[in-house]
Amino acid sequence: MAEETHQAYPIAPANGYARSDGESLVSEDELKRKKRIKLFTYIGIFIVFQIIVMTVFGLTVMKVKTPKARLGEINIQSLNSVPATPSFDATFTTQIRIKNTNWGPYKFNAGTATFLYQGATIGQVVIPKSKAGMRSTKKLNVEVAVNTNALPSSSTLGSELSSGVLTLTSQVQLKGKVELMLIMKKNKNAAMDCTIAFDLSTKTVKTLQCK
Question: Is 193 left (phi over 0), alpha (psi -120 to 50) or beta?
């Protein structure tokens, strides 16, 4: 009786395709390459983001702006004028405001606010040494007295007093430093140039303009 023989056949994969060891290595290398590309992409995005942040930081926070000095509201206590002489005297209270828009304090030395008539000094007030905080305004209350005692003879003063409007100017120059991040200091001078028009009939301030 003939002996039956059975031949064994390898089992085929379900998809009908057998992956070789070489193809498996290629697939792993491709996966690693994609991971490296993704990593480098993230690093590149991070670097670009940091550059943008540093640029914005440099253009805003680290940019030092010159503080500004301005006169606040003027409250007249007395205002007298004699066109015939001609002469005038006045006392009033106001605020000298130092506006600091920087991301650090502005420390300034003592200075003087000068009040003038046609370029001649008619009054002064002392501004004490102080500090305007980060992005804030320092307000200094002052009392001002002006008169014509030291005023040279003026051919226009009598006619100006007769017109009912007296125009004065006020100037300030403060020397100081802006401090940023506690490590950087930059010299900045706060200046003021204001024009004040007084209405002599109503004894009020008609206009106040500063630049």
Answer: beta
Give the H/E segment covering residue 206: strand 204-210
Cα distance between residue 106 and residue 98, in whole Å: 9
DSSP string covering 149-164 = TTPPP-TTHHHHHHHT
- CB within 8 Å of 135: residues ≥ 6 apart: 100, 101, 102, 103
Q: If you search the block for the tokens 């940023």, which residue do you land on? A: 180
98: Cα within 13 Å, side-chain hemisphere: 33
Element (H, E) at 38: helix 21-59
| Residues ≥6 apart with Cβ < 8 Å to 155 | none
Contacts of 107 (CB under 8 A, 6+ apart): 130, 131, 176, 177, 179
Q: Distance between CA atoms of 129 and 175, rounded to whole angstroms?
A: 10
Alpha-carbon gap, residue 123 to 102, rounded angstroms? 32
For the stretch 67-101, pLDDT in tens is 999 999 999 999 999 999 999 999 999 999 999 99
Backbone φ and ψ of 39, nearest 5°:
-65, -45
pTM value is 0.73
Q: Compute the average pLDDT of residues 193-199.
A: 98
- Residue 33's SS3 state is helix
- Say if residues 166 and 140 touch (Cβ distance below 8 Å): no
